[in-house]
Design a protein that fits this description.
With 374 residues, this protein is mainly α. It folds into two domains: 270 residues, Fido-like domain (Fic-like fold, Orthogonal Bundle), CATH 1.10.3290; 82 residues, Winged helix-like DNA-binding domain superfamily/Winged helix DNA-binding domain (Arc Repressor Mutant, subunit A, Orthogonal Bundle). The two termini are 35 Å apart.
């Protein structure tokens, strides 16, 4: 077993909570077959990174968006990709799409700091604060560990599927997890699998634990494997939500080898899958360039195509700033793309009274990514 049950009280009623064993000094014994799977997973992450083209940043943003959307979907937070992309551009939108966009922002924030900043409690709190910007969690519970007993599933901890440790044990358990996550003597895939499962077992926040725990996976893979952007692991976890939850249970009950092996296979699939997505998007970009063959090479419309993977939903003002033209010229560029069926006008369901905005959606790209993430 990787922990013990303790008796705690909830509304004066005794319940059983699970306290995980600290990771410090813990031996992570894995079978030779699982070790090979973790090595294959690390190789898949590196190959996916090498597969990114020289001008990789727009495609990297697309992969990060897929990670944020899929991680939110695991928690039953759903919105069309076009709405999420629009919410990234309008921070005042108070919608589910904006909350999912916050998840993407946290993933991007974490990966950008992975190579320059060690993990710390303060960094975890900053992720949680950003994630909860559009959440319903009371303000006093944002960016701090929970101060009350939590549970997972069920309406009360007496009927819950899982009851994490009492709040007074959280600081020491997270300190132990942070120290483990900063180590370099465990292979990166095993480290990310164990750190994620331990985080979910501690369940330190009042909400958002699953999403922050998967951000931690991205942070460790980026840091330890020295990649600019790790593949979107959550896309493939979302496709196997049942085995994922079962794996977390096995981790708690002593099935470390099973959990790490399953997780390594998911990382392999995500690495191979992200390379496939990059190929398909690049193929679409080539097709778009062919549709624009009658447009001069230095035209704003040509330059606009290159940023669509990063911004599949745009407005004339965004185009003006990104391409370096006037807003009128930005509208002309969008019209040129509309004539060639590269973008279509849409309000993507986000227009509000008093805030008119004309959105343009790269529908083929949005549909491609949406299909890939299902």
């Amino acid at each position: 077993m990787s922990g013990t049950e303790v008796t705690v009280y909830w509304r004066n009623r005794p319940i059983r909570a699970w306290v995980p064993r600290p990771l410090a000094g813990r031996t992570l014994d894995l079978s030779s077959s699982t070790i090979r799977r973790t090595e294959q997973a690390a190789g898949a992450v590196r190959r996916a990174s090498e597969h990114l083209p020289p001008r990789w940043k727009p495609l990297a943003r697309l992969l990060l968006r897929a990670e944020g959307i899929a991680s939110s979907r695991i928690e039953e937070l759903r919105a069309p990709l076009a709405e999420v992309a629009a919410a990234e551009l309008d921070a005042e939108l108070d919608t589910t799409a904006a909350w999912i966009a916050d998840n993407l922002a946290v993933v991007a924030q974490a990966i950008s700091s992975a190579h320059s900043e060690s993990l710390s409690v303060e960094l975890l709190h900053s992720w949680h604060t950003r994630l909860m910007r559009h959440g319903a969690l009371p303000e006093e519970m944002v960016g701090v560990f929970r101060s009350v007993q939590g549970w997972v599933g069920g309406t009360t901890p007496t009927t819950a599927a899982f009851v994490p440790p009492p709040p007074e044990l959280i600081p020491a358990l997270v300190d132990d997890l942070v120290a483990f996550s900063n180590q370099t003597d465990t292979d990166p895939v095993t480290q990310s699998a164990v750190a994620h499962a331990q985080f979910e077992t501690i369940h330190p926040y009042g909400d958002g634990n699953g999403r922050i725990g998967r951000v931690l996976v991205s942070w460790i893979l980026a840091r330890r494997l020295a990649v600019s952007v790790p593949p979107p692991v959550s896309v493939f976890i979302a496709q196997e939500r049942g085995p994922y939850l079962s794996g977390l249970y096995r981790f708690r009950t002593g099935g470390l080898d099973e959990w790490v092996g399953w997780f390594a296979d998911i990382v392999v699939r995500s690495g191979d899958g992200s390379a496939s997505l990059v190929d398909r998007v690049q193929g679409l970009l080539v097709e778009w360039e062919q549709r624009l063959s009658d447009v001069r090479a230095d035209a704003a419309a040509r330059r606009l195509v290159a940023i669509l993977p990063e911004h599949p939903v745009v407005s004339a003002s965004l185009v003006a700033g990104a391409v370096g033209v006037s807003e009128r010229a930005g509208r002309d560029a969008l019209e040129a793309l509309r004539e060639r069926e590269i973008v279509v006008p849409s309000d993507v369901g986000l227009r509000r009274a008093g805030r008119p905005r004309n959105w343009w959606v790269a529908r083929e790209l949005v549909d491609l990514v949406t299909t890939w993430t299902q």
